[in-house]
């Protein structure tokens, strides 16, 4: 009935993705990744350094059916997403419209999304 090609067999990762310890491990990895980003944000060029269409060429045509490891996801963010960002939080960003995001706000959103 849907537009997706659904596989009949169920992946155990899709029904119970993370036990509490794995959730903790991956959560720390994500927070550490973001902390390093903010620690080094002034080293990035403020403006995006890529051309329109850049990301589409780097991504597969469809999302993977099976989950990827957090290590693979973070590597993809580092290599594919960050180069295309405008780094609004950078101390080198002097535009009229400052970003309203903050590390404290990020933690608050994370907490709120957990329930």
Structure description:
GO terms for molecular function: carboxy-lyase activity; pyridoxal phosphate binding. Keywords: Decarboxylase, Lyase, Pyridoxal phosphate. Its cofactor is pyridoxal 5'-phosphate. InterPro entries: Aromatic_deC, PyrdxlP-dep_de-COase, PyrdxlP-dep_Trfase. Pfam families: Pyridoxal_deC. The protein is mostly helical and 115 residues long. It has a single domain (19-106), classed as Up-down Bundle (dopa decarboxylase, N-terminal domain). The chain has 5 helices and no strands. The chain has helices spanning 12-15, 20-39, 54-58, 70-81, 103-113. The longest helix is centred in the first third of the chain and has 20 residues, at 20-39. The mean pLDDT is 85.
Would you summarize the structure shown here?
It is built from five helices and no strands. The protein is mainly α.
**What percent of residues are in strands?**
under 5%
Oligomer: single chain
Shape, please? globular
Look at the helices and sheets and give the structural class. mainly alpha
* CATH A-level architecture: Up-down Bundle
Mean of residue pLDDT? 85
**Which percent range fits the helix content?**
40-55%
Name of the level-1 CATH class = Mainly Alpha
Going by CATH, the homologous superfamily would be: dopa decarboxylase, N-terminal domain
CATH fold description: dopa decarboxylase, N-terminal domain
Query: How many whole angstroms does the radius of gyration measure?
Result: 18 Å
Describe the sheet with the most strands. none
């Amino acid at each position: 009935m849907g537009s997706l090609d659904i596989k009949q067999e169920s992946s155990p990762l899709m029904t119970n993705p993370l036990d509490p310890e794995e959730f903790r491990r991956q959560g720390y990895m994500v927070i550490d990744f973001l902390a390093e980003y903010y620690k080094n944000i002034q080293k990035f060029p403020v403006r995006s350094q890529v051309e329109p269409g850049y990301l589409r060429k780097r991504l597969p045509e469809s999302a993977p059916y099976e989950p990827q490891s957090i290590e693979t996801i973070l590597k993809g963010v580092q290599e594919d997403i960050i180069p295309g960002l405008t780094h609004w939080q950078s101390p080198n960003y002097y535009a009229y419209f400052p970003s309203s995001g903050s590390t404290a706000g990020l933690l608050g959103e994370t907490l709120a999304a957990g329930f």
